[in-house]
């Protein structure tokens, strides 16, 4: 088992290195000079001498491989470097913003399960009935509306017209827990519209499938109470694919909440990544992408380990 | 199943009811007397005092720092840290300083002014005014309150330069890496990418100002969210009001809209190669665009046609006789093209950016109008960073630009029309028109008002003929605020981005 874990760990570390190198190359290959851009804000012509000075100070005039070695050496020390824009430590900024994105994604996941699972069960139990048709139609609609449309509509109706909630923003939990949660609710619910619909659909079809299984029929033949059959034999078994799907979606949401963060001014990691790309802040882009991809690799590594524990054949395969 | 469904409904209803007061408690956070929440268009990448890092940064800099001079609400030059100034010899200016203090409690002295100029002009400086300050021959400090700036050549516009938000005076005793200014507010805290907290500086030199106790500047990069934040009461004041929202804000009883035609859109040319190295072809472009349609399509009618050089009508140097200099005249465009040997039209690239709607929309309208006179322009709409690089390297034929001048003085547009300056995306590439460079230099060196006006009149006449750029539209630059906010003003013309100066007089009931 230990050898298996070590092998998987090595592969995972290799993957992280490949990702770091690819991101380094790609961000340096796309056009746009960060020094030029930094001094060109507001549509004003930068002094070429000042641009050259800045490039030298930021180390952008060094050969690409020198920059690559410097960057990788820094990473090995756990140092993501400094922002090109204001020399702010990138590691600190990621540490500040990653939990916010995780919180947003986590909250969306939990609400999606709370909403999607019971509705999926209810629809499956009344398959073909009015409730099922209505809920399925709603889920189809929810899946077809882009997240920025949902977000913008929520801001327009709930914040601008009804003035029930803030239009967006962020307040740390420690400063004002109530306001923090209130500000979290709208962006989280915006993600829930799509994610909850996915959960609903998967849960519905999973329940329908489980209902046909022999153990459920056997329980019914034994005369078990319908409620108990649903809770113990159907829902628990039907949840497995739902958890898999939600986990996959949450993973992709780590870097995919850009639009939601933008629409609601939620200062998470995705918005940070977009602004870094716009400013061609190379170290920031590399740091953020590396963290997101490392999380993916880590998740995969843990899943591999879990498979190996569950099924010993994997270790020897 | 019936009772179960009812129980579920009751529980859901109870949960929803419990959430309502929780949600309600969140609304209307702004409008605390003495404390103003300001919706910024972006978070300043840096508030280094002498670097140009955008207009959002400039607004924050105007809260924290002050220069020797600044602008009054009507746009006229006024003393700031300097109470008066006069010429000193053929190439110098002498400034008399007020008895004022920096935010660290130290007096503002002539030594601080000298130190500031030295920092800006230093070899490794990235200051916006580095080239200008390198033209300073020496700085004399006969006493603490007198500073004499001697230039290598006469510069009539030095007091105007000193009013720039890129040229504030900083205490020479600022701790390393920080910059202590003498503005009306001090920066107390900031959360990078989110917000900045500013507090009134009680030692500000204008007695009784600033009126506000505190400003919280929150970045709302999405323009629609910025408007929603204002309308929902999250913020008291916003900048960069999107044009499509201006009518709705103006009609809202609870809000005020303050707009000026300050910034402008224009076309720049690649003058280093055919066909735009020919003035006739450049003029053909300038006469081909119907500006009124552009104002309607790209700015929702919020702006006005610009058919001459972008000098504000409120400026004493505005030349009314050239106001139709590049009027819409497609027949003339076709004639000019034919004269230049392009009777069958030309094909070219038109660079803009998809990142900003106003740039993209402008390019699309211009493309249509050019097509009508036989200029087939192919759009290139990369992101802003790429557009800047392509522009700086001259890898385009025609390009859309939008910005504001440095000041309402005509020297403030030198950046856009002086081809002798280093290549830049803000001006035409490889297009050096000697007469314009000479007249700009003459205007800069001339101290007599009437003679200066005459010089700039001559310069504009040359510009209309040579078309170093093609003006397109003035665009409304707007601030919107709640009715309770008073004392904040949108500064006139090119000074719109100096409106942050009026935070010192702003109040909130």
Layout of secondary structure:
The complex is a heterodimer of chains A (317) and B (509).
Chain A: H1 2-29, H2 34-38, H3 48-58, H4 64-76, H5 90-125, H6 130-144, H7 147-161, H8 177-211, H9 214-222, H10 226-256, H11 258-263, H12 269-278, H13 282-310, H14 312-316
Helix pairs in contact in A: 1-13, 5-6, 5-8, 5-10, 6-8, 7-8, 8-10, 9-10, 12-13
Chain B: H1 2-24, E1 35-40, H2 55-64, E2 69-71, E3 77-79, E4 82-88, E5 92-97, H3 110-121, H4 130-133, E6 136-143, E7 146-151, H5 158-161, E8 185-191, E9 195-200, E10 214-219, H6 223-231, E11 237-238, H7 246-251, E12 255-269, H8 279-286, H9 291-299, E13 303-305, H10 330-339, E14 346-351, H11 357-372, E15 375-380, H12 384-392, E16 398-403, H13 414-417, H14 434-445, H15 449-466, E17 469-482, E18 485-486, E19 507-508
Helix pairs in contact in B: 8-10, 9-11, 14-15
Condensed summary:
The complex is a heterodimer of chains A (317) and B (509). Chain A has 317 residues and is mainly α.
Find the count of extended strands of chain A (DSSP E, 2+ residues).
Answer: 0
Structural class of chain B: alpha+beta
Overall number of domains of chain B: 3
What is the assigned CATH homologous superfamily of the largest domain in chain A? MetI-like
Shape of chain B: globular
Main location (chain A): membrane
Subcellular location (chain A): Cell membrane
Transmembrane segments (chain A): 9-30, 104-125, 137-160, 180-203, 238-265, 285-310
Family (chain A): Belongs to the binding-protein-dependent transport system permease family.
């Amino acid at each position: 088992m230990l050898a298996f874990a070590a092998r998987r760990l090595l592969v995972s570390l290799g993957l992280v290195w490949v990702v770091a190198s690819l991101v380094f190359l790609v961000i340096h290959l796309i056009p746009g000079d960060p020094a030029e851009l930094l001094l060109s804000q507001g549509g004003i012509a930068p002094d070429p001498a000042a641009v050259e000075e800045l490039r030298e100070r930021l180390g952008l005039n060094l050969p690409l491989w020198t920059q690559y070695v410097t960057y990788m050496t820094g990473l090995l020390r756990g140092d993501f470097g400094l922002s090109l824009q204001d020399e702010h430590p990138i590691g600190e900024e990621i540490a500040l913003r990653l939990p916010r994105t995780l919180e947003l994604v986590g909250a969306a996941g939990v609400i999606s399960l709370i909403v999607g699972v019971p509705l999926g069960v209810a629809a499956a139990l009344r398959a073909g009935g009015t409730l099922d048709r209505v809920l399925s139609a709603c889920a189809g609609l929810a899946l077809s509306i882009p997240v920025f449309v949902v977000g913008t509509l929520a801001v327009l109706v709930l914040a601008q017209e009804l003035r029930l909630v803030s239009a967006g923003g962020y307040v740390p939990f420690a400063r004002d827990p109530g306001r923090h949660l209130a500000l979290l609710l709208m962006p989280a619910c915006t993600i829930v519209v799509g994610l909850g619909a996915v959960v609903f659909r998967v849960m519905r079809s999973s329940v329908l499938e489980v209902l046909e299984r022999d153990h459920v029929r056997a329980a019914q033949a034994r005369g078990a109470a319908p409620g108990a059959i649903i809770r113990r034999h159907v829902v628990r078994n039907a949840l497995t694919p739902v958890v898999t799907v939600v986990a996959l979606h949450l993973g992709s949401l780590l870097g995919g909440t850009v639009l939601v963060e933008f629409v609601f001014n939620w200062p998470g990691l995705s918005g940070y990544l977009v602004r870094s790309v716009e400013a061609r802040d190379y170290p920031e882009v590399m740091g953020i992408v590396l963290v997101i991809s490392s999380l993916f690799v880590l998740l995969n590594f843990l899943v591999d380990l879990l498979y190996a524990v569950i099924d010993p054949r994997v270790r020897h395969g | 199943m019936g009772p179960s469904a009812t129980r579920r409904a009751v529980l859901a209803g109870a949960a929803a009811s419990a959430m309502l007061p929780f949600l309600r408690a969140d609304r209307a956070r702004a409008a605390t007397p003495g404390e103003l929440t300001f919706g910024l268009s972006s978070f300043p990448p840096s508030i280094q005092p002498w670097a140009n890092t955008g207009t959002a940064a400039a607004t924050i800099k105007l809260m924290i720092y002050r220069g020797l001079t600044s602008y009054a609400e009507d746009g006229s030059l006024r003393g700031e840290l300097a109470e008066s100034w006069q010429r000193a010899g053929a190439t110098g200016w002498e400034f008399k300083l007020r008895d004022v203090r920096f935010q660290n409690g130290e007096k503002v002295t002539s030594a601080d002014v000298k130190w500031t100029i030295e920092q800006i002009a230093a070899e490794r400086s990235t200051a916006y005014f580095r080239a200008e300050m390198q033209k300073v021959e020496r700085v004399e400090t006969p006493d603490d309150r007198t500073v004499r700036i001697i230039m290598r050549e006469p510069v009539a516009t030095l007091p105007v330069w000193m009013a720039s938000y890129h040229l504030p005076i900083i205490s020479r005793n600022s701790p390393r890496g920080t910059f202590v200014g003498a503005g009306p507010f001090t920066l107390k805290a900031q959360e990078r990418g989110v917000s900045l907290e500013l507090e009134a500086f009680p030692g500000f030199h204008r007695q009784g100002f600033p009126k506000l106790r505190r400003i919280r500047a929150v970045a709302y990069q999405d323009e629609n969210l910025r408007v929603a934040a204002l309308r929902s009461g999250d913020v008291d004041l916003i900048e960069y009001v999107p044009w499509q929202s201006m009518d709705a804000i103006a009609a809202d009883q609870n809000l005020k809209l303050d707009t000026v035609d300050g910034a402008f859109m224009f076309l720049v040319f690649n003058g280093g190669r055919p066909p735009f190295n020919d003035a006739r072809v450049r003029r053909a472009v300038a006469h081909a665009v119907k500006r009124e349609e552009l104002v309607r399509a790209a700015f929702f009618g919020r702006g006005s046609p610009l058919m001459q050089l972008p000098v504000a009508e409120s400026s004493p140097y505005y030349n009314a006789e050239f106001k139709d200099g590049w009027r819409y005249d497609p027949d003339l465009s076709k004639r000019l093209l034919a004269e230049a040997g392009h009777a069958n039209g030309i094909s070219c690239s038109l660079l803009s950016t998809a990142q900003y709607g106003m740039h993209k929309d402008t390019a699309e309208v211009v493309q249509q109008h050019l097509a009508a006179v036989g200029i087939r322009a192919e759009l290139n709409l990369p992101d802003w960073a790429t557009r800047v690089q392509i522009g700086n390297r001259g890898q385009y034929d025609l390009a859309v630009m939008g910005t504001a001048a440095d000041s309402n003085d005509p020297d403030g547009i030198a950046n856009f029309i002086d081809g002798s300056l280093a290549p830049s995306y803000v001006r035409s590439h490889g297009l050096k028109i000697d007469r314009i460079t000479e007249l700009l230099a003459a205007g800069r060196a001339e101290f007599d008002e009437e003679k200066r006006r005459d010089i700039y009149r001559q310069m504009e006449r040359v510009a209309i003929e040579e078309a170093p750029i093609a003006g397109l539209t003035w665009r409304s630059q707007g601030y919107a605020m709640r009715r309770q906010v008073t004392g904040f003003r949108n500064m006139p013309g090119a000074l719109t981005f100096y409106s942050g100066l009026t935070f010192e007089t702003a109040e909130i009931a």
